[in-house]
Amino acid sequence: MDFGIAGKWALVCGASKGLGFGCAQALVREGVNVVLVARGAEALQAAVARLQADPARPASAAVQSVAADITTAEGRAQVFALRKDWDIVVTNAGGPPPGDFRSWDREAWIKAVDANMLTPIELIKATVDGMAARGFGRIVNITSSAVKAPIDILGLSNGARSGLTGFVAGVARTSKLAGANVTINNLLPGAFDTDRLNATMKGAAEKAGKSIDEIKDARKKTIPSQRFGNPDEFGATCAFLCSQHASYITGQNVLIDGGSYPGTY
Prior knowledge:
By secondary structure, this protein is an alpha/beta fold.
């Protein structure tokens, strides 16, 4: 299927590895010009090299990068200094740490809200009007399955990402955007085989006095699909939401969790 987005320009945040890289890779393979943003310059350079060497990348698809912290005003200024107008924006920032809500002070909450709510909103604000004027725009926010099924130790993430979800539910449905072929959707990942998951599994293994493999196997058994997701399939879903074929999908929370969420809605 031709997604109809070859030649478009995409900004993909947190793209040096994991789910962000999966999205960047899927878009590049569709012929999209992609600019990757991440804080770690070394990992970012490695990611760019992987994409440039990808045999599935059309020769016409450019791959560029900006080493910056997208959660800061300075980082966003670096990105927009490179390019002002974007056709596709994939927002993504590392989730805040787990813990007991009793130990989180105001600073911890502000940091979580800045990264996982206000940063996507700032990127949406900076790009949607230009998208609407050109008659095409796709914004995909990588959030978390915890938005639908909150996890007690992830209160910072639950709160900040739920705030973004509520904001998107309203702005995505305005006729000025939806009527101009600009869509905004959220991708809600469950357990994916990423560095973040592996770090969590390592911590759980040390705490339980078990091997990482034991902890992973036990976790997989709680997932109906009996496995963890992989960044490639996550990226493919993101690319579809960015395609011409997804113009009638907006304001949605697309859950990708192998069937873990037990609810009907």
